Amino acid sequence: MSSAMGTSCLSTATLGAAPLSDVVTMLPLRRPVSPYTRGTVLLRSPDGKLIPYEPGGRATDYVFDIVFSPPGKGKSVLLQTLNLGTILSAGGTAMPFVAIIDIGFSSSGLISLLKESLPTDKRHLAAYHRLKNNKNYSINPFDTQLGFRYPVENERAYLTNLLLSLATPAGQDAPYDGMAGLVGAVVNEMYRWRADDEANAQPNVYQPGWDKEVDSALQRYNVALPEQPLWWDVVDRLFEAGAIHAAGLAQRYAVPILSDAISTAHQSNVQDLYHGTSIQGSGETLLQAFTRMINASLEEFRMLGDVTKFDIGEARVCSLDLQDVAPQGGAAEARQTGIMYMLARHVLVHHWWLDDKMPEDSPVLYRRHHEKRIAELKELPKRICYDEVHRTPASVASGVRRQIWRDAREGRKWAVQVAVASQILADFDSEMVKLATGVWVLGIGLSVDAVDEVVKKFDLGATAKYVVQHRLTGPTEAGAPLLLVLGATEARYVQYLVNTLGPLELWALSTDPVDVAVRTRLYEKVDPCVARRLLAASFPGGSAKREVDRRKAVRSERGTNNLDTEGSVLDELAAELLGRVA
Question: Given pLDDT bands bounded at 50, 70 and 90, which one contains residue 59?
Answer without folding.
Answer: very low
